[in-house]
Request: fold
Amino acid sequence: MEIQTLYQEAIKFASAKHTEKGQKVPGTNLPYDVHISNVAMEILIAGSSSANFNTAFAVQVALLHDTIEDTSATFEELENKFGIEIANAVIALSKNIDLPKDQQMPDSLHRIKAMPSEVWAVKLADRITNLQPPPSHWTNEKKYAYKQEAQQILNELHKANFYLAKRLEKKINDYNSPSALL
Ligand code: NI
Reply:
């Protein structure tokens, strides 16, 4: 199937699920579709700049990456509609909320690293998309912790995709700048 068709099926499914929850981009009034389509955009551009990159697979994972963690979507639903590889990728990208909070990211990174490199790339693209000037109510401590977590993601996953690793590295450096911390 064409990537364009796969993209449309995945964004329709994800958008319906996130809309059902009334989910917005945190700190804004924008529909969550803005987040998932930005992650997919990062993946499409990275895919065109990377050799041996399964763009069809990666872009579907990008669009669906928050459905299990944030919506009523289940592993079985994703498996039936998009196949086992995509369901496995999305579950790896989902936090295990039964774990203590400080273990959730290391645990997810560990599970992501057992997946194809395109899944690592989606995690890089997700954090690139999220590393924007932080909401005004965030404390400096929270901003610092978020930056540290981004650095941890970069350290663990940078080998997956040179193009996205460079972009995330730049976003982390920009996050340091005084204007981003206002
Ligand atoms: Ni996300």
Q: What stands out?
A: Residues 3-181 form a domain with the Hypothetical protein af1432 fold (CATH 1.10.3210.10). DSSP finds ten helices and no strands in the chain. The chain has a mean pLDDT of 94.
